[in-house]
Amino acid sequence: MIGRRILVLAPHPDDEVVGAAAAIGRAVAAGASVFLFHLTTGVPAPALLWRGQRRRHALRVAIRRTEAAAAAAALGAGLAGMSDRPCRTLKDDLPAARQEVLAVLERFEIETLWVPAYEGGHQDHDAAHCLASTLRRDLPVWEFAEYNFAGGVIHANAFVRPRADQILLRLSPEEVRHKGELLGLYRSEQGNLGYTGRERECFRRLLDTDYSRPPHPGVLFYQRFQWVPFRHPRIDFTSPETVCRVLVGFVREWR
Q1: What is the Cα 144 distance to its own chain's centre?
Q2: Which residue range(s) make up the domain with 233?
Q3: What is the pLDDT of residues 167-210, one digit of tens each?
Q4: CATH number for the domain including 173?
Q5: Phi, psi dihedrals of residue 21, rounded to the nearest 5°
Q6: Could you say which of 12, 43, 80, 93 has the lowest number of CB atoms within 10 Å?
């Protein structure tokens, strides 16, 4: 899973820390060059925010960019760029996002690609996984677990369906401490990071994936609060069926 030049596809600024902080640290220590590319700003579009928050949208994006730069520096990784795409919109812009990633792969001479698993943690994570799956003919692609809600329980850094070939990284006390510090750099996201794990990280090769079905039965992580009867900015009301339909269409076009 470690190559000389690695690109981590982070759907949002902070995913590189949540799912791969220790792995990035170990790769850098082994002499690899690691680069981060953020596929969205991590901030919802202004129209999804409360009316009073909309005028601060640009500031929120700028803060998240600053946090991402600080995290990259602390990880010893390079910033390959951040898209201006709002979060929760990656599935709707996959062809353009794919072209962005291809340009980064060429510019930085990437040999290995890391991406979050298809696990229903966030629709952007699942869209990023689908995008990366179309690049498997060009280079090795590894997926890492972040969080899921399989069985109605939050699981951190564990795959929905484990495989015998997956690689489990158990973090040392120093790595646990460092990961906590890295998570703390994302001050704007502290209300959303309480479910993240710090004791392990889990990787495996990305294999063929059936995007016609949600990652697991039952409620997905991003569906947990869809029972709220009004459109709250922090709740994603997108249905998994909608996400699956878009991903299947994209895969048919690019694979």
Answers
A1: 9
A2: 5-254
A3: 999 999 999 999 999 999 999 988 888 888 899 999 999 999 99
A4: 3.40.50.10320
A5: -60, -50
A6: 93
